[in-house]
Amino acid sequence: MGEREELINKLRAMAKRMRRTALAMTLGAGPHGAHVGPSLSIIDICAVLYGGVMQIDPRNPLWTERDRFLLSKGHGALGLYTALAETGFFTREELNTFETPETLLSGQPAMCVERGIEISSGSLGLGLSIGIGVALAGKKAQRRYNTYVLMGDGECNEGAVWEAAMAAAHFKLDRLIAIIDANGLQSDGLCSTVMDMVSHEAKWRSFGWETRCVDGHDVSALLDAFTATRKTPNCPLVVIATTVKGRGVSFMENNNEWHHNRLSQAQYGAALQELAD
Amino acid sequence: MLPINASNARLWSMLGSRGTFGVAMLEAAGGAENIMVLTADLSVTSGLERFRGAHPDKFLNVGIAEQNMIGIAAGLAKEGYNTFVTTFSNFAAMRSYEQIRLHLGYMRLNVKVIGLAGGMAMGHFGNTHYGIEDMALMRAVPGLTVIAPADGAEIIKTVDALITHQGPVFVRLTGAMNNPIVYAEDYNFTIGKAVRLRQGTDVAIFACGTMVFESLVAARNLEAQGVSASVTNMHTLKPLDTDAIEEACSYAALLVTVEEHGVIGGLGGAVAECAARRGGAPRQLFIGLPDRFGKSGDYKYLLRKYGLTGEQIASNIMATLGSRTCNVPESRVMAE
């Protein structure tokens, strides 16, 4: 088996474990429930970034050269937390504290850089601007780290996203990578019905970004999208990842009831069967 | 730091608060490597033209996008920069309120927001450009330090302190050009520590920003009428110097707060919250802007219209001493 194939298999297995862990955390949250659907849609993206792309070191979380991952769509918290657990920032036992009082792992992330949580998020549309500041600081110091900002497609309704989109291109931040988790659903239903943004690719390109459209569950394609040589120099990159909300659990897929919900023991059992090795 | 003396005080007065901020920033940034100054298309208005030319590597214009400015500042602060941002106080406090709440308050990132033209300094521009709720909003953000310097010298002192101060701060500049001078010689400025400028026994006046000077005028006026008033410069609204208020409660029969800000939630609110906890505190007279939007006018006209000149403040205090209530009498605010 070639090195690439090995990596792909590793990332697929990692994503599957992350999905199982995310479901266990949702079950553990009991009546609080969790944003399980929008987390399952980003898990392959997170697995590829944390398992195959980003330079990070859990033993040295403040390493100045580390790649930065900013989860702007804070309701994808389970995607972030499970990736951080996979890479050694949290133990499995610590994940059990999810949504318990005084936890480091609240329903929406609260900044704790020492444990890999780069920013607080939850209110949408704010992450990309912070990413610009982080990327600018890197550029000024001639550091080689990349700054990844993951947003939802519904999140892009927020005007602040477009202030940032404009500025990132203006400041030529070629080490800033935005990712759109384009699962086509937002809280009140289909994105196309709630607020049709027509074409993310056309919008981001017109704002001066290099765009790459990819199947957000195809680990190999994601890997290429993040690592392939850039076509356009001196501009930021956006990876528009088409995803399925609730991906991996048939009764959750494309079903907005699972935007935020609680999970019964029976549902958990059924979901795990679908995610067996 | 630039020396505080009569000659510099005159210069800073002439420049006004925004020009003085630019001078202070230029002076302070020279020796500080980790400084960044951001503006939302207001570099000239912020007095930053010379700074922009002298330190292009420390300056960033983000265009007319205040929310993005706070976000970028937060990202820079996260990576170790002591980041200053400037725009009009009302835009900073309101357009980007949530960014300030989350990035400065919740994440405690080291960003200094310099709010220009708080109060009614923008005169003829009208209410869109007045900062009359900014202190109330900023004071409500957990963990945010809020400072309202009294004059040019205190702006120099504030910026100098913020070069080494770690943590989020909102600075509210008031006044236009030719601001009155409070300080013409050096003094001890400490964030969170009020400055008693004048001793008194009957009335305790607390003021911030431009109203410090007017309150000193009022106190002299009161003295001529046989009323002894202390004047305290509450340059820091948060954290509040509660000792200064406690002390005033022990000697004064009337507390007076004077601010170029709405009477809801600003300095008056801060002092009242403290005094009320004490029990048996003196009455409080809230001098500030009434709870409504008025019409525009030139700055000096507006100060007079809303009873914010020294003479009017004194007469308001005299009237209150002779009455049982402390309401801002509508009759003392000129008719619309």
Order of helices and strands of chain A: HHHEHHHEHEEEHHEHEH
Low-pLDDT runs of 5+ residues of chain A are none
Report the mean per-residue pLDDT of chain B as an integer. Answer: 95
**What is the chain-wise order of helices and strands of chain B?**
HEHEHEHHEHEHEEEHEEHEHEHH
Q: Work out the strand percent of chain A.
A: 5-15%
Outline the biggest β-sheet of chain B: 7 strands, mixed
Question: How much helix, percentage-wise, in residues of chain A?
Answer: 40-55%
Integer tally of domains of chain B? 2
Uncertain parts of chain B = 328-336
CATH class of the largest domain in chain B: Alpha Beta
Class by alpha and beta content of chain B: alpha/beta
* Discrete helix count of chain A: 11
Q: Gap between N and C termini of chain A, in Å?
A: 19 Å
Per CATH, what is the topology of the largest domain in chain B? Rossmann fold
CATH superfamily of the largest domain in chain B: Thiamin diphosphate (ThDP)-binding fold, Pyr/PP domains
CATH superfamily of chain A: Thiamin diphosphate (ThDP)-binding fold, Pyr/PP domains
Rg on CA atoms of chain A, Å: 18 Å
What does the oligomeric state look like here? heterodimer
Structural class of chain A: alpha/beta
**What coarse outline of chain A follows from CA principal-axis ratios?**
globular
Under the CATH scheme, the architecture of the largest domain in chain B is 3-Layer(aba) Sandwich
Protein described:
The complex is a heterodimer of chains A (277) and B (336). Chain A is α/β, with parallel strands linked by helices. Chain A has a single domain (3-274), classed as Rossmann fold, CATH 3.40.50. Chain A has helices spanning 3-28, 36-40, 43-53, 77-86, 92-95, 127-140, 159-170, 191-194, 200-206, 219-227, 265-274; strands at 68-71, 147-152, 176-182, 185-186, 189-190, 210-215, 237-242. In chain A, the strands form 2 sheets. Chain A has a 5-stranded parallel beta sheet, with helices on both faces. The two termini of chain A are 19 Å apart. Chain B is an alpha/beta fold and 336 residues long. Chain B folds into 2 domains: 6-174, Rossmann fold; 195-332, Rossmann fold (3-Layer(aba) Sandwich), CATH 3.40.50.920. In chain B, the strands form 2 sheets. A 7-stranded mixed beta sheet of chain B has the order 2-1-3-4-6-5-10. Chain B has a 5-stranded mixed beta sheet with strand order 7-9-8-11-12, sandwiched between helices. At the A-B interface, helix 6 and helix 7 of A face helix 3 and helix 5 of B.
